[in-house]
Amino acid sequence: MEVFRGLHCKFRGLFDKVDRELREDTERAYGDLEAQFHCVEQVLHKTALPSIAPRVKYSLQRFCDVSTLLQVLRQPTGDGDTSRSKLQVWQDLKVLSFARAFAAVVSLVIVSMQMRLMLTVLSRQLFLERAMEGTKRGACWPVLDMQAQEFFLSLVEKGFGTRGVEQLVGVVKSITKKSVGDLALSKSTNAEELRLVLRNLQKQTVPTVVSGDWGLGVAEATKSTDDTSEATNSTNDTGNSIKENNWDTNLLPSDDDVRAMWRARVETKENAASGDSNDSIKENTQTADLVLSMVTEIRAVVRSPGFAMALTSALENAWDVFEQRATHELFVQKEITQMPVAKLVPALSNLSGDVLKKPESLFAAVASSPKVVQLTREMW
Fold first, then answer.
1. Cα 328–chain centre separation
2. Contact 116, 371 (CB under 8 A)
3. pLDDT (tens digit, 0 to 9) for every residue of the chain, 380 residues total?
4. For residue 359, what are the CA distances in angstroms to 57, 242, 312, 348?
5. What is the C-alpha separation between 160 and 155, in angstroms, rounded?
6. 212 in helix, strand or coil?
7. What is the pLDDT of residue 282?
8. Which of 134, 182, 183, 258 is the most buried (most CB within 10 A)?
9. 351 in Cβ contact with 101 (< 8 Å)
10. Contact at 8 Å (CB) between 348 and 48?
11. 176/96 Cα distance (integer angstroms)
């Protein structure tokens, strides 16, 4: 009996040791993952977002250009017909100013969300690469070199940074015209009234933005704004039907475009080196497949209910920040209680420009959303 007790104690001690080591390894693994997660956050806010924000600003300046309307207003007043046309220009400028403000906030939120998801997928891939080093499985584990990493992240600029912003502006213009079209230019408004107008615009626009189906907005904007030729050219250039305008195509290029861009990127490097060897062709094909698998994951995430909830929460947080900034800078800071809508229009347009130059507060609003953090952690 004593022998069995001794064996039991030895085995029990052995099992306790194994169990303790497993717990320590698990805690260490979770600690490594948590450290990597925070590292992603730092890269996002210090490098990735500052680098992509100017691209969004330039796109919005292009698709929400007010310079043509301002030129018309600066022309000398002529006969009655000219006066009536200038009044219409003022109405168009009013709609465009509100649309520009909303599009600026939404674009910065979307690009923040997109870059966050892409960095999460990329960093997890790199984390697994390091974990597989020196193992049998690691010998066949796909690896992304620096060129491939940069290419993957550059897809943000090729996707939402250009085509996506254009589609978004189209739908925002359409909804904004319905929301503020009847707002009289001669009407005086105060800070609270401005807040109500902005809040109403948010309620009408966010559901469409979150749905990702922006093609209909472009079609309506084509009919309802003076930018008819621009919107029409946009629709013809993309060659996509309304049904195809969803998150998949608004955020990232198509799979065929991704492959074509990757081939174009590596051809120069291959030709400059030793030519197109079978090994290099195979390696580049494997890299393209890996990048596309990461793109596929992003597409799946942005179609999920979790992304819709996270984006809605991020938009609410960011819009609250913008509302507070608008009322403070346009009324409280200037120590005024009333402002005609005609004066509010250029002030709001200038404010949206300032937000695009310094988007840090909006990025922080996105990062503070628990739903955004939850979505990112689930992906990780």
1. 26
2. no
3. 665 566 556 656 666 666 676 676 666 666 666 776 677 788 888 888 999 999 999 999 899 988 888 888 887 765 555 666 888 889 999 999 999 999 999 999 999 999 999 999 998 888 888 877 777 665 666 788 888 999 999 998 888 988 889 989 999 999 999 999 889 999 999 999 999 999 999 999 999 999 888 864 444 444 444 443 343 343 334 333 334 447 878 899 999 999 999 888 877 665 555 555 555 566 678 888 999 999 999 999 999 999 999 999 999 999 999 999 999 999 999 899 999 999 999 999 999 999 999 999 999 999 999 999 999 988 87
4. 10, 31, 18, 16
5. 8
6. coil
7. 61
8. 258
9. yes
10. no
11. 8
With residue 238 as reference, give the H or E element that holds it: helix 228-238
Give the span between the Cα atoms of 211 and 298, in whole angstroms: 16
Instruction: List phi, psi (to 5°) of 310.
Output: -65, -40
Among left, alpha and beta (phi > 0; psi -120 to 50; other), residue 212 is left
Predicted local distance difference test score (pLDDT) of residue 79: 55
β-bridge mates for residue 340, sequence order = 188
* Identity of residue 336: I
The amino acid present at 240, given as its one-letter code, is N
Strand positions, DSSP E, the chain: 188-189, 339-340
Q: Which of 166, 155, 154, 159 minimizes the C-alpha distance to 60?
A: 166
- Give CA–CA dist 72/96, Å, rounded: 15
Q: What is the structure's pLDDT at 224?
A: 41
- Kindly calculate the radius of gyration of the chain based on its CA atoms and give it in whole angstroms: 26
| Burial class of residue 280 in the structure, from the number of CB atoms within 10 Å of its CB (0-12 exposed, 13-18 middle, 19+ buried) | middle
- Is 301 within 8 Å of 307 (Cβ atoms)? yes
Structure tokens at 318: 């960011």
How far, CA to CA in Å, does 314 sit from each of 185, 340, 355?
Answer: 32, 31, 16
- Segments making up each domain of the chain, as ranges: 2-379
d(CA 258, CA 226): 34
> CB neighbours (10 Å) of residue 334?
11
**Joined tokens for residue 332:** 């409280």
Instruction: Give me the sign of the Cα torsion angle 231, 233, 238, 243.
Output: positive
- The closest of 95, 74, 98, 97 to 86, measured between CA atoms, is 74
